[in-house]
Design a protein that fits this description.
The protein has about 160 residues and is an alpha+beta fold. Helices cover about 45% and strands about 20% of the residues. The chain has one domain. The strands form two sheets. Strands 3-4-5-6-7 form a five-stranded antiparallel beta sheet. Strands 1-2 form a two-stranded antiparallel sheet. It is elongated, with a radius of gyration of 20 Å.
Length: about 160
């Protein structure tokens, strides 16, 4: 696979009203400097959001028909406020990633895609949080299961 040449300028185009930012392998790897800590934070936030959601679900059943002064009802109100706050923070974090032209594909796995061009084809460079660098690619339709390793000289 022949990925965009090293040092090629990042291009932004419109496709169906969506802005697409193209990255070279080197440019995608440079993004990891800010992306890794941001994504680690979002993964933790998502885990906390999911935990709070489970607690809300349990308490909602427990307080069904209870007085608003019931301690569990007050705890439920507090948890619901916390859930909203976490959801808003998650949304802002995801938007910050997308504003840079990076696509967050799976928050729980920390899976990220970067648009690039190979020959005359638009493809994704693919990275996940557990990996030290961007070292895989896949077609737009292929997804994670269709990932292929970049050639060694494309990563250097």
């Amino acid at each position: 696979m022949d990925v965009v040449a090293e040092g090629a300028p990042v291009a932004a185009t419109k496709k169906g009203g969506v802005r697409i930012t193209l990255f070279t392998v080197d440019e995608a790897n440079q993004q990891l400097e800010w992306l890794r800590p941001a994504l680690e934070h979002l993964v933790k936030l998502k885990a906390e959001f999911d935990k709070v959601q489970r607690e809300v679900d349990v308490l909602a059943l427990a307080v069904s028909g209870a007085s608003p002064t019931n301690p569990d009802a007050r705890a439920l109100d507090e948890l619901q406020r916390r859930r909203v706050s976490l959801g808003e923070e998650l949304g802002r974090g995801v938007q910050a990633i997308h504003r840079r032209g990076v696509l967050l594909k799976d928050l729980e796995r920390g899976l990220i895609d970067f648009y690039t061009v190979s020959g005359d084809r638009l493809i994704f460079l693919c990275w996940q949080l557990s990996e030290p660098e961007v070292a895989h690619w896949h077609t737009l339709e292929g997804g994670f299961s269709g990932r292929l390793p970049l050639d060694r000289n494309e990563r250097e």
